């Protein structure tokens, strides 16, 4: 079975647990923090994957490191360690956060622009593109990319809306090349 399917199953279980105990918001906050911890601390993954370190030692580290976290989140991490599934923790967190965004009607979006966008520009982009993908709003991640020359390129999931100058030039070039081949 693929890692993605397994990660999705753990995320679904944690999501259902959060719904039953009315702790979805708390789980979301904790998992966002946990995601940052795992991204910024490669040694933690190395420790959790190390074959010479016992499962009990790994679970003890999780217990001590995440004392302020809910029992459900900590127990999920311990369960993943018990089953030697440490490598899917980040993917499980990503699936959970995606489920939370879907439940709220929010989507994650990458916006490529030549410069950093202002709050009002981000708000307008969110208001413009959210209905196009059937969402109430977008969480925007602004990526500064001078190679687009001007305009913006928006990526929401697997959809790309390209209003950049470089994108328009590329489309014009393709039209000219295909017209010359005829």
Helix content: 55-70%
CATH-defined superfamily of the largest domain: N-terminal domain of the delta subunit of the F1F0-ATP synthase
Count of runs of 4 or more consecutive helical residues: 8
Order of helices and strands: HHHHHHEHEEEH
With strands numbered from the N-terminus, the spatial order across the biggest sheet is 2-1-3-4
For the residues shown, what is the average pLDDT?
A: 91
- How many separate domains? 2
Shape: elongated
The CATH top-level class label of the largest domain:
Mainly Alpha
Radius of gyration (CA) equals 21 Å
Give the percentage of residues in beta strands.
Answer: 5-15%
Describe what you observe in this structure.
- Keywords: ATP synthesis, Cell membrane, CF(1), Coiled coil, Hydrogen ion transport, Hydrolase, Ion transport, Membrane, Transport.
- It comes from Halobacillus halophilus (strain ATCC 35676 / DSM 2266 / JCM 20832 / KCTC 3685 / LMG 17431 / NBRC 102448 / NCIMB 2269) (Sporosarcina halophila).
- With 182 residues, the chain is an alpha+beta fold.
- It has 2 domains: 99 residues, N-terminal domain of the delta subunit of the F1F0-ATP synthase (Peroxidase, domain 1, Orthogonal Bundle), CATH 1.10.520; 71 residues, no CATH class.
- Helix content is 60%, strand content 14%.
- It is built from 8 helices and 4 strands.
- It has a 4-stranded mixed sheet.
- Helix 2 packs antiparallel against helix 6 and helix 4 packs antiparallel against helix 5.
